[in-house]
Amino acid sequence: MGSWVLRISLFLVCGVSGYVFAANVAPSPSVGVLGFFGGLILAALTLLVEGEVKKLPLRSLLGSLAGLLLGFIAATLIYYIFLSRLFDRPFLALPLAGGLYGIAGYIGLRIGLKKGEELQGVARKSAPMDFSNGASPKILDTSVIIDGRISDITETGFLEGPLVIPQFVLSELQHIADSSDPVKRTRGKRGLDVLHHIQKQVNAGVQIVDKNYPAVKDVDSKLIQLAKEVHGKIITNDFNLNKVAELQGIDVLNINELANSLKPVVLPGEEMNVKILKEGKEMGQGIAYLDDGTMIVVDNGRRHMGKTIDVVVTSVLQTPAGRMIFARPKEEPPRDRKEYYYPLDSEF
Questions:
Q1: Burial (CB count within 10 angstroms: exposed 0-12, middle 13-18, buried 19+), residue 146
Q2: Looking at the DSSP assignment, which residues form a beta bridge with residue 138?
Q3: Which of 26, 183, 216, 334 could pair with 31 as two cysteines, CB 3.0-4.6 Å apart?
Q4: Which residues share a beta bridge with 140?
């Protein structure tokens, strides 16, 4: 509410000031109205600039302000050294001074903004890789960053120790974000957004390390090498990386395993209410899903397609990739049958 009051006040002040200024320059009602609308446009531009400035990191903002100040100082020196002879001719001096200050200020602003971003990157790269104190560092791989759930986990505060993001992982994310494939480009941009969100979290100590291994070509191998060097753990949801790292004695935190362990425990004999969404692979079977995505194979559930029914759990199949529940309609008596195994990554 307070922000809207300030914005309305800004429009009123700029509008009235524009009207008064224009009326004093040329005492005419039409000129005053033009000045009023000019003030409103100035207020709108001010709010637009405010929105863009809010997006800038503090280091970049300070760098741009320092560059702008240096640009104005350079313009002042140039003006007084080379254009002092034009002081007695204001019709030439004022336009030249305005253009000079505008050009020098813009160049200084852009250079300061760029140097501020470079200083931010240098500060991150120069951070020492000292993880001797406290919990072991957690190294994020590309897949878990794109997945996005790591952001929610870090926000809860369950992860201890610094989150390490290698520079080669950032490079891979940028390469994906710049891909010509729209799907890959979207995934890459999502990963960069997730990293930006994690960096803003107060309880997440993010450290970007400029550590590379030129002799190692594969990103997964570089992650394993870095984990060995800093005695850290790799956070991933890549099944292959998980197995290779464990074979080499590296501790791995798999997001998929964490998600599966947090799913509610379902025991044979329990009742639940589900909606049959599609056919199963065996005759008469129907498929339903829990809210967390767990598949439920309902025996003789095909005839209830599109309906919500009560079912009784007959058995639960637990695999490293997830959980699958077998059930029967509640109104049907139990009978001996063999469950048909469904690969969890299959499509019906």
A1: buried
A2: 163, 233
A3: 26
A4: 235
- Statement: residue 265 has pLDDT above 70: yes
Alpha-carbon distance 321 to 154, whole Å?
A: 23
Nearby residues of 191 by Cβ (< 8 Å), 6 or more positions away? 142, 145, 146, 148, 173, 176, 177
Mean pLDDT across 231-260? 88
**Cα-based angle 177, 182, 184 (whole degrees, multiple of 5):** 50
Report the distance separating Cα 243 and Cα 229, nearest Å. Answer: 19
Residue found under tokens 């030129």: 214
Q: Categorize the per-residue pLDDT at 126 as very low, low, confident or very high, splitting at 50, 70 and 90.
A: very low
| CB contact at 8 A, 339 and 317 | yes
Torsion from C-alpha of 35, 37, 43, 44, nearest 10 degrees: -150
The pTM score is 0.48
Question: If you write DSSP's letter for every residue of 57-120 in order, what string do you get?
Answer: -HHHHHHHHHHHHHHHHHHHHHHHHHSGGGTT-HHHHHHHHHHHHHHHHHHHHHHHHHHHHHHH
Q: What is the largest CA-CA distance in the chain?
A: 106
Residue 54: enclosing H or E segment and its boundaries?
helix 29-54
Q: Which domains does the chain have, with CATH numbers?
A: 2-125 (no CATH), 138-260 (3.40.50.1010), 266-329 (2.40.50.140)
Rounded to the nearest 10 degrees, how much is the dihedral formed by the CA atoms of 118, 119, 124, 125?
A: 70
